[in-house]
Task: structure prediction
Amino acid sequence: MSAAPPVPGLDRTQLVEVAAADLPRLVPLFDPDHPNLAFVHAVVDGAIPGRAWAHFQNDVPVSCLVATTAPFCLAAGAMTPAFFTQAKALLAGHGEVQLVYPPGPGTGAWAKQAGFAAGRRVHFTRTHFAFIAPAPAVPDGYALVRIDGETFSRLDSPMARSIFGTRAQYAEKAVGFALVKDGQVAADGHGVIGGGLIELGANTHPDHRRKGLAFVVLAAVSRWGSGQGLRSVITCHAGKTPSIALARKLGLTEELSYPIAKATC
Result:
């Protein structure tokens, strides 16, 4: 992932909202190796809720900001100081923001000037085309089920709700598996699907942690994705040791580390 050079001349970046029908025009701004690329395609495809803004020159987008309803926001194209300032203003009221942006000379300083703090995430993916995650062994007393709308409504997972929206949206557009015990969802794993990728995420109820349940549900989602020809991806904060260990246990390999700009907006 690399930043496009700033537009020559004065910094006249002006981000305007992009209509849903025009969202596909933004996709070429994102490199194929852009982290969290599944989220971009999922917003463009209408698989998860989100909004987007872009700066146009001669009716051609040269930079853009894609915001999911979760903390994850993604920037691409020609970065400028005004881009980060306007992004911060446009995201007012969003809550927690983790902005993925293309690294380049000055970009980290521009983000800091706009009021963002620096952070890093790491990106894991499969090592070869024929990769299939290990088959999970379901622990005694638990049932592994495909998440439907009714199961989604019972999840103790604020992140899943913020990414996928309503139970109806989830049932129509998303895929996930849960481990259920005594009627309670003990762990849930999900995949954000887009651009040939499936980005994995999981949540475990506090009463059921340290039992390896996240591995079981994520392996189920990853194996489902492999059956659909999707490449599994996991991203996490660079210092989040349990998530890194989980990605490696699934058979994924660290591909890159990348900067993010963090803020509460």
User: Anything to note?
Assistant: The mean pLDDT is 92.
